[in-house]
Write a structure and sequence with these properties.
Elements (H helix, E strand, L loop, with lengths): L1 H9 L1 H11 L3 H11 L5 H34 L7 H22 L6 H10 L4 H66 L1
């Protein structure tokens, strides 16, 4: 088990990078928790998360631009996705694509979906990068910070829960002793 932990910590930045490229939100939260334990550096985590998020977004966007339309036209009918929806989607992204990409970047599980839709809608590369670059930086900072704060809160809550458990156990013990004593007293009164 110690060897596994050594490997995870030794390769943590590499795991973080690829985890953010492929999945997203869970990895900077977990890395932020490790920052709260002083196992990782906050600024390194933010930097790697930012690069991983941006690279991942570029890959999703490029794949959707290249293969997305063909896949939708070929298999969309199986998902009740007709060509009319494709046109509406393109019109929507022409009007609201910038705002949509910016907002959905911060909503769990919507980030990749909107990037794929932007790629299928053939959003301009320059426009995409102009939006995604600052959004990825802010996203990396916020999710790492959130993980760090939750990690610190976890230990605070753990100590608080321990203290409350001990206090609750003490109160329960007092109640049990009091109840047993009161029963004995009532039993003596009845006899």
């Amino acid at each position: 088990m110690d060897r596994i932990l050594e490997l995870l910590i030794g390769y943590s930045y590499l795991i973080l990078f690829w985890g953010v490229v492929v999945e997203g939100e869970i990895f900077p939260l977990a890395a932020g928790w490790l920052v709260s334990l002083s196992l990782l550096n906050f600024y390194a985590v933010v930097g790697i998360t930012f690069v991983g998020a941006f690279v991942g977004d570029l890959l999703w966007f490029a794949a959707a631009r290249h293969w997305g339309r063909r896949l939708v036209e070929k298999y969309g009918r199986w998902l009740w996705f007709k060509s009319e929806r494709l046109k509406k989607m393109e019109e929507y992204f022409a009007r609201n694509g910038k705002k949509t990409l910016w907002v959905t970047k911060f909503i769990y599980s919507f980030g990749h979906s909107s990037i794929i839709v932007a790629g299928i809608a053939k959003m301009n590369w320059r426009q995409f990068i102009k939006i995604d670059l600052p959004a990825s930086l802010l996203w990396a900072f916020l999710f790492t910070l959130l993980g760090k704060l939750l990690g610190a809160s976890f230990y605070l809550m753990r100590h608080l829960a321990r203290d409350l458990t001990l206090a609750g156990g003490g109160v329960l013990l007092i109640i049990i002793v009091f109840q047993a004593s009161f029963r004995r007293y009532l039993n003596r009164q009845v006899d």
